[in-house]
Fold this sequence. Notes:
By secondary structure, the chain is an alpha+beta fold. The protein is about 40% helix and about 25% strand. It has nine helices and eleven strands. Strands 1, 2, 3, 4, 5, 6 and 7 form a seven-stranded mixed sheet that branches. It has a four-stranded antiparallel sheet with strand order 9-10-8-11. The radius of gyration is 20 Å and the shape is globular. It binds (3R)-3-hydroxy-3-methyl-5-(phosphonooxy)pentanoic acid (PMV).
Amino acid sequence: MQAPAKIILLGEHxxxxxxxxxxxxxxxxxxxxxxxxxxxxxxxxKNLGIVEDLTSCHKFCNLWEAAQYIAASVSRKPWPARxxxxxxxxxxxxxxxxxxxxxxFSACYAILGGIKPSLNLVLRAAYEAEKIVHGNPSxxxxxxxxxxxxxLYRRGENPIRLSNVGLKGTKLLIIDTGIPRSTxxxxxxxxxxxxxxxxxxxxxxxxxxxxxxxxxMALKEDDAAKLGLLLDLSHGLLNAMGVSHEALETAIxxxxxxxxxxxxxxxxxxxxxxxxxxxxxxxxIISSLLQERGFRVFEVEIGVNxxxxxx
Length: 311
Ligand code: PMV
């Protein structure tokens, strides 16, 4: 069972204030490998080096919620299982690593109980897990990891998977600055600036909606150059709103001047990660240049499928 990470392509921060955003599933995965058991629900994590029985959980109480949700959906008590988890997704980098783990776990646990892991069941079970990790999450991380592709979302509305979109001949570089950041602090800084702009703030939110619409058009027309321009524009606005960081600027400029279609911060900003949309043939060289400057770089497909079941 594997489930992908997510990135926000554009619209972060503005989405908190009501405009649209587009997220995408990217080719970094969490995997869950399960087998039936006689007793307990034993989860082992390769990355964290933890083995725990969920029925008396300390670290994986999120997954216990998911297991209970799945069992309740068929009016049963949770069944015993052994599930091993591993993940390629950086933790705490805004890429939905906990959601991807919850999605892979949920699909695996359902199958071990003889239940078909429908999109709806997995999405909801993983959301129960995410509530334990994040309090009151928007649900975008578990949604993107479950359904995959490119997802349009707006606060208070159901996320929509965009159809007939794609970017041929491109790769996405995910550039981890390694600078820790707090989503809450970044959201506060952005919101304070937006308020200070008074009426102009509303015009900017409208502008971002238009940028997102144009980006969706570019995705439908498979126009990477146009999308790159819109990513650059989005970053310029986020920078002006105070949520960039010197390390993000360095990474973005290296990517742009070495041939990226466009580059921007992704997620909360103020550190964390940047993304660069690049022609496939230039991915290797741009990635090397970034690594030489000390960045950790992941070269991934964008818009990959949601969770998949492997026997
Ligand atoms: O970096 P992350 O995954 O925490 O992304 C935060 C995205 C924001 O738009 C800044 C906040 C939000 O809740 O949408």
